[in-house]
What we know:
This protein is mostly beta strands. It is about 5% helix and about 40% strand. β8 (about 90-95), α2 (about 100-105) and β9 form a beta-alpha-beta unit.
Amino acid sequence: MLCRASAIVLLLVTTAFSQEIRRTPLILKDGGTAENPAVFDGKGMIIDLGIDVTSHDWVESGDVWTSRGPFADHPPVADTQRAALFIKEVPVRITRDRAAEQKSGEKGKVIYAAAETLKPGEMGFKDDGSICFRWPEGKTPGSAKIFLPPAGLASCVAIACSYLTVRNITALHAANDGFNIHGARVGIRLENVKAFSNGDEGISAHETVQMDVFDSEIAWNGSSAGGVADVGDSITTYTNCELHHNLGAAFFFDGKQHRVTNCRIHHQSQDIVTRGDAVVEQSGNVWLK
């Protein structure tokens, strides 16, 4: 089983898969049949939607940095479910001042945490849309690049068909999910995929999706729910996968039925979180805090 728990190894992983780097989302619409599923083999393809803003003219105040004005097409994000900035591989959490919002008495009022109150790895927005953040622990200016996800809510890979096997793709820096599956899709199989540093989940199945995931790695994703979040009436399985350093839990299940087998989970505050009447079977998993 894979065991990669550091940014150095992440660099080695992405370097090893150097056949193709794609800067636009991949939408897969051509499936097969139950008897003859279609196969999309990325052969080591990297889909990296990140925008490198390291050289931006940042205003530096110790380990709190603020952009000089907003970035084009990147307005303030009210949704604290996801991350809107990455320091190398680390997602930076959007933080709001809930007490101030409540005190304002204005319904729907959004007030971000003041820059000086941010904890390491947190970010907010100024009134003019400027981004402010405090450097995460273990990252220092000059030692790590700063990335924005793309404008909008694109995912790296969107699967819009049934009976499809997807292999050997690394998904990075999506504003939404690394691998996103919506609708009445069945017969979806992910093999040896990697979902790193995406704004929301690494992998997320919705509605009535039926999906099986094998030998994959999901890490450093920014969702407050989990590195994986399967919801609706989805039915999913995860076998021989590794999950680590996601902001939320490793797995978040609000779907119908799920199975997690022989997976390795580490550097997570929680391993598997369920909501509603989701049924989860587990066997052979290893969880190291």
